[in-house]
Amino acid sequence: MTTHNPDEREAMSTYANKTVLITGGSSGFGLETARLLISSGARVMITGRSQQKLDDAAQRLGPGVVVVLSDTASPADIDTLANRVEAEFHRLDLLFLNAGVTRYVPFKSMDDDTYDEIFAVNAKGPYFTAQRLAPLIREGGSIVLTTSVSNVKGLPMISAYAAAKAALRSMTRSLARELLPDRIRVNAVSPGPIDTGILERALPEEAATQTRRQLTASNPMGRFGNPAEVARAVIFLAFDATYTTGAELPVDGGGSQL
Questions:
Q1: Rounded CA separation 115/103 (Å)
Q2: Is residue 150 in some structural domain?
Q3: Within a domain: residue 58?
Q4: How confident is the prediction along the chain (258 residues), in pLDDT tens digits per residue?
Q5: What domain range includes position 81?
Q6: CA torsion sign, 191 to 197 to 203 to 204?
Q7: Global pTM?
Q8: Is residue 205 in a domain?
Q9: Residue 57: partners with Cβ closer than 8 Å, 6 or more residues away
C-alpha cells in the first residue's frame, strides 16, 4: 500500500477542486504549469494546435488533464473551447492565457501575413478568449497572461512579436480594471530567456546556438531560466497574490530590470 507523509499529502491537495484552463499548454512552461497544478490536486484543461503534442502531453500529465485541440486565433475554436470548459468544469478558478507564436523576422523583411499571424495568436486571440471565458471564472478567480521581456527591450528580429506582447501588457491593466466588479484579478508573467527549446525550433542550428550564447552572456544571472521557474510565478499570481491585480511579474534573471 502506498503511503504519503503529511507534507506530501498537503502538496497533493493544495489545489484540490481548483479548475484551470491553460491555452498553449502542450509544451514549455504551459505544460510545466499544468504538471505542477495537477500534482497538487487541480483539474486542468490544456489547449494546443498540434494533436500529436497534445497526445504527448496527456501521456506525461496523466488522468488529471483534459486536452483540447484549439487554435486561439480562431473565433469558432474559442466558442467551442468555452462550451467545453462549461461542460467539463462549469466554472474556472484560473484562466492562463499562454498560447503564442514567435517568428524571427527582420523588420525590413516583415510581410503582412506573418504580421497578422503574430497579432492574431499573441494579442487578438487572448483578448477574445478572455472575453468569452471571463463569465465562467468564479469570484476570487484570476486570469494570467504571458507577456515577454521583449515588450520593454529593443530586441532584433522580433519587432512584431514584441509589439503584440506590449499590447498584452496594456490589456492586463485594462482587463484588471474592468473585471474588478467581478472580483477577478488579472496579472501577467513576463518571461525572459527560458530553456524551452523554442530557439532550436525557430532558428537554424548555427543561429540558435549564437543567439543562445548572446542571451546567456547578456543576462545578469548568466543563464537561461527553466520552465518550472515560470510555472511557479504563474501559480503565485493565480492563487497567492490575492492583493495584486494589473501587475506584470518578470521572470528573466534580471534582464529587464538591471
A1: 9
A2: yes
A3: yes
A4: 444 454 444 455 799 999 999 999 999 999 999 999 999 999 999 999 999 999 999 999 999 899 999 999 999 999 999 999 999 999 999 999 999 999 999 999 999 999 999 999 999 999 999 999 999 999 999 999 999 999 999 999 999 999 999 999 999 999 999 999 999 999 999 999 999 877 777 778 888 888 889 889 999 999 999 999 999 999 999 999 999 999 999 999 999 999
A5: 6-193+228-250
A6: positive
A7: 0.93
A8: no
A9: 25, 26, 27, 31, 34, 46, 48, 65, 67
CA distance 169 to 177: 13
Residue 220 lies in a domain: no
Q: Identify the CATH number of the domain in which residue 81 sits.
A: 3.40.50.720
Task: List the catalytic residues.
Answer: 161
Find out whether 142 and 94 touch, Cβ atoms under 8 Å. Answer: yes
Residue 34 exposure: Cα atoms within 13 Å on the Cβ side = 30
Provide the number of structural domains found in the chain: 1
Mapped onto helix, strand or coil, the DSSP state of residue 254 is: coil
